From TrEMBL:
Protein name: SHSP domain-containing protein
Entries under PANTHER family matching the protein: HEAT-SHOCK PROTEIN 20 FAMILY MEMBER
Pfam families, sorted: HSP20
Lineage: Bacteria, Bacillati, Actinomycetota, Actinomycetes, Pseudonocardiales
Signal peptide: none
Length: 145
């Protein structure tokens, strides 16, 4: 049997009960931690979703708004299960990203491994830098636009 000896955790639990948050919820806002960076000709967005099954993740893009929804379900269920400590947030988590017009939202690739969701969003061809030739009599130069 697990023993709870941290008085602050007990205070969090009591605060949740007083302010109407049900059992199994988290005392702090539940978020999906995320990293985003550009790698060459694509943007990479990485979400931490530990304990979420792949079939409980939903990705949707509408008008350059990417919505990620994930549901963490209880791992211990059944008639003879008596929860002793419930600190992991459960339920549906959602996050929206506003994508620029320079990204190719039709070709987003998603992978999920070891609790990490990785999205790869290519930069649209029209947004990539290109060389433009300038002709001027005898000189001919190329500049990047």
């Amino acid at each position: 049997m697990l023993m709870r000896t941290d008085p602050f955790r007990e205070l969090d639990r009591l605060t949740q009960q007083v302010f109407g948050q049900g059992p199994g919820t988290w005392s702090r806002p539940a978020v999906m931690p995320m990293d985003a960076y550009r790698a060459g000709d694509e943007f990479v967005v990485v979400f931490d979703l530990p304990g979420v099954e792949p079939d409980a993740i939903d990705l949707d893009v509408e008008r350059n708004v990417l919505t990620v929804k994930a549901e963490r379900r209880p791992s211990a269920t059944g008639d003879n299960v008596e929860m002793q400590v419930a600190e992991r947030p459960l339920g549906v988590f959602s996050r929206q990203l506003f994508l620029g017009d320079t990204l190719d939202t039709d070709n987003i690739k998603a992978s999920y491994e070891a609790g990490v969701l990785t999205l790869r969003i290519p930069v649209a061809e029209a947004a990539k830098p290109r060389k433009i030739a300038i002709e001027s009599g005898e000189n001919r130069k190329e500049i990047t636009a």
